Amino acid sequence: MTEFDNNPFAEPVHDNPFNDPSVTQVTNSTIEPVDQYPPFTQPYDGLAAQTTSASTSPYQPAVLQPSTEPSPQASAAAAQANLLRQQEELERKAAELDRREQELQSRDSTGKENNWPPLPKSFPIKPCFYQDFSEEIPVEYQRVCKMIYYLWMFHCVTLFLNLLACLAYFTTDTAYGVDFGLSILWLILFTPCSFLCWFRPVYKAFKTDSSFSFFFFFFVFFCQVVVFIIQAVGIPKWGNSGWIAAFSAIGNNKAVGAIMIIVAILFTICAVISVIMIKMVHSMYRRTGASFQKAQQEFSQGVFTSKTFQTAATGAASAAAQGALQGNN
Fold it and tell me: DSSP 3-state assignment of 167?
């Protein structure tokens, strides 16, 4: 078929540039041209719809609520309630202190039952002293006072072991029977005397802050330190298992010498601890404000207020008055 058979009014197939596939794809695309988004017109309806849907989401932004301050009347009422509560607490504590003070006064008026030495109730000898560190001794002095009490107990145990050592020494050599006899005397004599002469004075000094008791303790306890040193030295024939006596006995019997060396070590420990204790008590004594003048005043007041002294003075005055009247007659 020739070209004359074609329709002369139809568009040529090969000559139309818009029939190209790439061109037809662009012209038939659903992408909207840029002209449809004018910059000075209202927002796009689809964008507005998205904004509206986002604003209607269930998550709302946080909104700070304004703080409500209490009114002055409410503040005053709360402060008054707090003051009333504190006042009730103070009144309760004051009532508790009054109750304890009344209990102490009643105990002082009725007299405290002695509890030292701790003896069975069926024992014929009753306790002679009342002793309670937590009640009678201030808290800052309790530790030192207890240490002195433990030193006294340690000294008593050492004296008992000294008796056993001297007994063992006496069994090996009868010439040292005098040491055994003196060791019995030291145990019987020093055990109660040390308690009465230096422990009870320091206990009373800490209890009542007595200057006279402090001075009495220093004087007696210094003598006790000297005795501890003599016992630790162990002079032969003095009834002490000290170092000299122990080295003398170890040549005859090693077992007895070893026992006496142990006792000598205990006497040495007593001497060292006693020196430490007297320094500690002296440092506390200086902080209490005690003095020799106060000790003299306490001694004079104690002597003049003593019933025994008053009775003796009254008897002496009456006897002198009667003698003077008889002389005049």
Answer: helix
| Residue 280, domain extent | 143-305
Candidates 223, 228, 220; CA nearest to 203 is: 220
- pLDDT digits 0-9 by tens, 235-251: 988 999 999 999 988 88
314: in domain: no
Find, among 232, 272, 189, the residue nearest to 280 by Cα.
272
Amino acid at 234: G
Q: Quick one: which of 203, 201, 166, 170 has its CA closest to 187?
A: 166
Q: Which residue has the tokens 């006995």?
A: 249
Separation between Cα atoms, residue 282 and residue 215, nearest integer Å: 10
pTM beyond 0.70: the answer is no
> How far apart are alpha carbons 254 and 194 in whole angstroms?
33
Total domains, the chain: 1
Structural domain contains residue 249: yes
3-state secondary structure of 209: coil
Q: How many residues does the chain have?
A: 329
State the first-to-last Cα distance of the chain, in angstroms, to the nearest integer. Answer: 200
Which tokens sit at 276? 């430490």
What is the rounded CA–CA span in Å between residue 236 and residue 229? 14
Give me the pLDDT at residue 269, please. Answer: 97
- Are the beta carbons of 234 and 242 closer than 8 angstroms? yes
Instruction: Give the model's confidence band at 308: pLDDT under 50 very low, under 70 low, under 90 confident, else very high.
Output: very low
DSSP secondary structure letter of residue 129? B
Distance CA 262, CA 241 (A): 9
Provide mean pLDDT across the span 92-106: 73
73 vs 79: CA distance, rounded Å: 10
C-alpha to C-alpha distance for 134 and 205, rounded to whole angstroms: 15
